[in-house]
Design goal:
Helix content is 81%, strand content 0%. The chain is mostly helical. It has 2 domains: 181 residues, Growth Hormone, Chain: A (Up-down Bundle); 189 residues, Growth Hormone, Chain: A, CATH 1.20.1250.20. The longest helix is centred in the N-terminal third of the chain and has 32 residues. It starts with 5 loop residues before the first helix and ends in an 8-residue tail after the last helix.
Length: 401
């Protein structure tokens, strides 16, 4: 997100590798994505513990998800401004070092303000990493393999959900939530070393600056994508942030089973990532509509079946499948709208998604504290279904640039 103005971009030189980078380089960026996703959503499985230890409400603890989203939304476009001519390899390493510092601060915190300070640092890392790292697939593997490289990078999101968050929850339940954040600190430091070892030098490409963000926002297809992102991400994180207390209090599921259920949710998400890659190659619009409808429908049915754990758990897996499809579905929609301005598109995606994550977690927390847990779940159901309807009703000719 380097908002390099004309003066800054003029110094940037095109950087096209003579040969494609090794797949280990692509995988290293995906590992970075894994570390970020694990850290961002680690509080979800540990919310009751954190709230009790700090003497706050679950809604207040939900600020641990809200705040990084808000900060990342602000930082995403401005990363382009600050990055300037910096080598993207060095920039990613700095951002992941910030991730390690953020997790360490949380693990040592004894009050909510200190916890939130660490999460602010995390938000800066998230916004910067996804703006730069999310657009590196086509640069690391030019040509036809660019889509595969992008899918591998974004698979870090699914793996983080599949393994990182459930394992963190399991570790937190066994040894305390602080130990879970301590382990996340160590993971982030390992990722920094991996990136330094295998990622090649990546100079900024010409014409990738803050000014491109404004031009990208004028594209009708991008505007439709932003509406979908707003509705889906607000709905997703207005509900998912509070899924652990919901399962405990309304579905009657024991605390010992939560890690396994979240693992299943993540595994379904990993499958969704693979399904979305196949589906988007056939119909980007159809994939996005199906993703939102699957998420909204499963959440609505899950709320209605709250007293029946045997129904709630399979529906939660369907929800996970839809959520796993989401990054590829939305990214495919936006990248197809402005294929020559990938960093700017990534900045727009990250900013809008993270703002919506923060808004969703905040709104869900307010609804939870005022009206109870089912209201937060209904937020997710109605918002995601509204997104499915909105995208389905758009005519292709109205998307012409």
């Amino acid at each position: 997100m380097s908002a390099m103005g004309p003066a800054s971009t003029s110094g940037a030189q095109p950087h096209v590798p003579a040969a494609a980078a090794p797949w280990t380089a692509v995988a290293s960026v995906g590992i970075g994505a894994f570390a970020l996703v694990t850290s961002e959503f680690l509080p979800v499985g540990l919310l009751p513990q954190i709230a009790q230890d700090l003497g706050i409400t679950p809604g207040q603890a939900g600020l641990m998800v809200t705040l990084p989203g808000v900060i990342a939304a602000v930082m995403a476009p401005f990363t382009l401004a600050f990055a300037g001519n910096l080598d993207r390899r060095h920039l990613l390493c700095v951002l992941l070092a910030m991730l390690a510092a953020a997790n360490l601060a949380v693990s040592l915190a004894t009050s909510l303000p200190v916890v939130l300070a660490g999460r602010i640092l995390l938000g800066i890392a998230i916004g910067g990493f996804w703006t730069i790292g999310g657009s590196l697939g086509p640069r690391l593997r030019p040509g036809a393999e660019g889509a595969r490289a992008t899918s591998l990078i974004f698979s870090g999101v699914s793996v983080g959900t599949v393994a990182g968050v459930p394992v963190g929850t399991l570790l937190g339940n066994a040894l305390g939530w602080r130990m879970a954040f301590g382990a996340a600190t160590a993971v982030a430091l390992v990722v920094v070393m991996v990136l330094m070892a295998v990622l090649p030098s990546l100079k900024p490409t010409q014409g990738q600056g803050f000014g491109d963000v404004g031009s990208v926002l004028k594209v009708p297809k991008v505007q439709v994508g932003l509406l979908a992102i707003l509705l889906i991400f607000v709905g997703q994180f207005g509900s998912y942030t509070y899924i652990t207390p919901y399962l405990l209090q309304h579905a009657g599921i024991g605390a010992g089973a939560i890690s396994a259920i979240l693992f299943g949710y993540g595994a379904a998400g990993f499958a969704g990532n693979l399904v979305a890659g196949w589906a988007a190659s056939r119909s980007v619009k159809g994939t996005l509509v199906a993703t939102a409808a699957m998420m909204g429908g499963s959440i609505a049915l899950m709320v209605m079946a709250a007293d029946h754990a045997l129904l709630v758990v399979p529906l939660l897996m369907v929800w996970g499948l839809g959520f796993g499809m989401l990054p590829i579905a939305v990214q495919s929609w936006l990248f197809s709208a402005a294929p020559s301005k990938l960093e700017a598109v990534s900045a727009v995606f990250v900013s809008s998604a993270q703002a919506s994550i923060g808004a969703g977690a905040l709104l869900g927390g307010l609804l939870l504290d005022r009206f109870g847990l089912p209201s937060a779940m209904w937020l997710g159901a109605l918002a995601t279904l509204a997104a499915a309807v909105a995208v389905a009703l758009v005519k292709q000719r109205s998307l012409a640039q």
